[in-house]
Amino acid sequence: MERDEQIAKLTSWVTGAARGPRSAGAQRAGAPDDPAVSGPLAVIGGPVAAGKTALLHRVQERTAEWGVRLLSAATSAAEQDIPFGVVEELLRDTADAPSPLPLHAPLDGGDFVPAPTLMAVHARLAGLAAHRPVLIAVDDVQYADPQSLHCLLYALGRARSTGQELSLVVTRGPAAGATPPAVLEELLRQVAGPRLRLGPLSARGVEALLAQRALEASRTGSAAAGARNAATLHAATGGNPLLVHSLLDDQAPRQRAEGAFPAGEQFLQNALICVHRTGADGLRVAQGIALLGDAGSLPLLARLVSAGERTVEDVVAALRDAGILQGTRFRHGAVHSAVLESLAEDAVARLRRRAARLLYEAGAAPMAVAAHLLGHGPHSLDEEWVPGVLSDAAHTALAAQRVGFAVRCLRLAEQCSRDERERLQLRANTAKFIWRVKPSAWAHALQPLNAALHRGILPVTESLRLVGGLLWNGWIDDGAMAIQRALEGVQGRPDAALAAELRGVRLVLVTTFPTLLGRMDSALGPDWDHAEPLADPSDDGVMTAMGLLQGVLGSTPGPRDRAGADEALTGRAERILAGTRLTEESHVTVRACLLALMYADRLGAAALWTDRHLEEAAERGAPGWTAVMQAMRAHMALRRGELAQARRLAEQALEELPPHGWGVGIGMPLSALIEARTAMADHEAAAALVDHPVPEQMLQTRYGLHYIYARGRHQLATGRHHAALTDFMACGKLMREWDMDRAGLAPWRVGVAEASLALGNREQAERFAREQLAEETGPRVRGLALRVLAGARPLRERPALLERAVTLLQDEGDSHELARALTELGATYERLGDAAQGKTCARRAWRIAEASGSREPGQGAPAEAAVPSAPPRAVTSAPEPVPVRSAPATASALTDAEQRVASLAAHGYTNREIGAKLFITVSTVEQHLTRVYRKINITRRQDLPVSWDNDVAHTA
């Protein structure tokens, strides 16, 4: 392919050589007109495997057509030092010679050839040329021995002067780094002739080659597929014909048709041959490029492989011409790997170490140096600069989200460090990063630090920073020891930095591990908090966020108005979240702010920010962060009645991080899953989760409160009312003792009221429900408390309480609890004789329950189900009068649009859902409902007649 012009030139040259000078004026039969004879020597040059030898063979094939005698020889680098090797090969078939040539006469030294030898070789060639033209063909002339080249130079010179028909055609490939013999340069300079240089195939040339091979194999294909395959092949081979054919030969027909060309054995073998044939230093330089990743810095590469810069430059150019390199990098990754694998393991280690040192001395980026140090391993890396470079590389990698690389750098730095304090610091950083990429291995990473703590060699600051990790893994006593050791190391009043660490630890204890708080406060004494503060405490995001979480959980927020305090705290939490990205330093800040929003019942904002940070954690490949936030997001979904989503998120959290990696934090996903399964009436699965072993230390933490409350919900739903009451009371006792008595954490009073109602203790149920309502709590929890309170009150009072509960729960979006409240409201209306209204509520409840994933909207100890069916004690002789509602107007008073909106609203659709279903705005929905209320003389959504359901299923 793409060799027609060169073939034509050589053919013309061969025919001219065949006629010779004596017959130049005569035209032989079949010879081209006016052949160009430019001299007795033709040179075919080009990169490795460009097709030079194939072109030479085409020339040799034509010699028989013109009556030319052919003498040929092929050389190799291994035979270059054999004197007269080429001459002997050229004349091996001249058996008609009268006497042997004196080729083995003693030489005076170097490549000097005695005159008798020169004359004898010329005489032999002249004798052959006397009968017919002689064409000498030498392949890879750059490897020809100098003695033979002297003989050829002499013979051609004599033939030119005497008019003998003697010609020479040679191929010459790259010999990067080698100095060619002077006689070769003299031969090519003094003897004139055509000079041809073969280049690689173009993309079109590769496409033509593909078409030819397809034709030979009787296969056809579209032009588009051929162009696509040709582009792929050209990119992988640079158009090197040998490599193109090799890559094709390695493929199955199906792979070729699909345009996929994975590297096979033949391709890799020939690619390595190409590397070897670039010169004596070709493989060594290629190995250096493979090790460094590219050949961007020739001086560095030259120093690495201990070669001259000119040699390296020549080899790189030859590799580029041969299609092995593209620019400064390997074209094909498999060739890169094959060249690297050609190095022995000890050579790789030696070169990696040398590369790292050279890069460090040249001021290269720490990550570039670290890449070679990591490839070398810790052995013999005793230079003092190594740990520092690896530590710097780890921080750079972390900023680029390459956490796995950072962890490997820190581990190697620790192994190479000679300083005990430095090793402990590196180990602590490693443990911190491991939590992000492989949290299940975090406990193992903390054990060496814990051992150092027990030996008393861990610095005070590192002891305090270790507390959170120890407590998370349930090592409560070790956490207490870390605090104690740190306090023992404080001499006098702590400085600002140490005071900040102490405050941070105290906030962790206050918000999550309160059982250790007393020990810390007693050890610190009353005046510890008067240490010099930080210059700007607001700069410490973790401290601020933990303070916000404490403010939300605490029973004394400062201002007398709980709602106002929550507004201020959650507003600040959102501002922090808006300006914070997930990092090793900030993920605790993010978690604290998200928990503050959730416990303050700002569920919409909490879910929004959690989803955003979950996306960020996924982008950064941080399973530890993802699992913890999935568990929190499951609780948010649970509080909004999204049971299926809560179950899915909790299960994903437990899959992302296995139970042994959760430590005491397992209470978070496990409690969400127990509550979701219970609410979905999957009691068997919930029971299995309750029976799952958990760390005993978990019950001493905030996570334990979630777990105890969830277990109480399961006990209540499965009829174990006394056990449920015990759990709810225990949960409330701990929350009050720990100053975490916040319904957003666990509405234990509602649980106590429900369990009491199920046990028939209306008085206690009402007392705890009213106690919950008296607390400054959010609308959602008020709705829960009102629903339970209704069950404890006389029948006549229940509708008003339940309707208030429905309104609050609907506004807050808790679909599961809304379905429960509507179920009880429907049952109440039925008992009061309003069957139509009861039917409306029941149908809405079932639709909402089905959407939320609950199988039984009234399950979980409904208020009325647990109470005897006897009439209320206040009724003695006659039933209480029941107010009768005026019948609503008929649907005929409404327009079609108003009736469609009213029908959907009556079946529990929200305004947004109605707008989406009917393709109208929320504002238009509100306007329609306002007119509907006025026309049929009602004031509330709950009063919409469910009988207008004739077209709901087909609406929009």
The total count of strands amounts to 7
Percent strand = under 5%
> Mind describing the biggest β-sheet?
5 strands, parallel
Straight-line distance between termini:
66 Å
- DSSP helical segment count: 45
Calculate Rg over CA atoms. Answer: 44 Å
Helical amount: 55-70%
Low-confidence stretches: 22-37, 219-225, 529-539, 859-888, 949-954
User: Strand pairing plus helix content: what structural class?
Assistant: mainly alpha
Averaged pLDDT: 82
Specify the overall morphology: elongated
Sequence of strands across the biggest β-sheet: 2-3-4-1-5
Task: Give me some keywords for this one.
45 helices; two-stranded antiparallel ribbon; mainly alpha; 5-stranded parallel sheet; 956 residues
Question: What do you see in this structure?
Answer:
- The longest helix has 18 residues, at 420-437.
- The chain has 45 helices and 7 strands.
- Strands 2-3-4-1-5 form a 5-stranded parallel beta sheet, sandwiched between helices. It has a two-stranded antiparallel ribbon with strand order 6-7.
- It is elongated.
- With 956 residues, the chain is mainly alpha-helical.
- 61% of the residues lie in helices and 3% in strands.
What does the secondary structure layout of this molecule look like, with pairings?
Blueprint: H1 4-19, E1 41-45, H2 52-63, E2 69-74, H3 85-90, H4 115-129, E3 134-139, H5 146-162, E4 166-172, H6 182-190, E5 195-197, H7 203-216, H8 223-237, H9 241-249, H10 253-258, H11 265-276, H12 282-292, H13 298-305, H14 309-321, E6 325-326, E7 329-330, H15 333-341, H16 345-361, H17 366-376, H18 385-399, H19 403-416, H20 420-437, H21 442-455, H22 460-472, H23 476-489, H24 496-511, H25 517-524, H26 541-553, H27 562-578, H28 587-599, H29 603-619, H30 623-639, H31 643-656, H32 659-662, H33 667-679, H34 683-690, H35 702-717, H36 721-737, H37 748-758, H38 762-774, H39 779-792, H40 798-812, H41 815-831, H42 835-852, H43 896-906, H44 911-918, H45 922-936
Parallel strand pairs: 1-4, 1-5, 2-3, 3-4
Antiparallel strand pairs: 6-7
Helix pairs in contact: 1-2, 4-5, 5-6, 7-8, 8-9, 9-11, 12-13, 12-15, 13-14, 13-16, 16-17, 17-18, 18-19, 19-20, 20-21, 21-22, 22-23, 22-24, 23-25, 24-26, 26-27, 26-28, 27-28, 28-29, 28-30, 29-30, 30-31, 30-33, 31-33, 33-34, 33-35, 35-36, 35-37, 36-37, 37-38, 37-39, 38-39, 39-40, 40-41, 41-42, ...
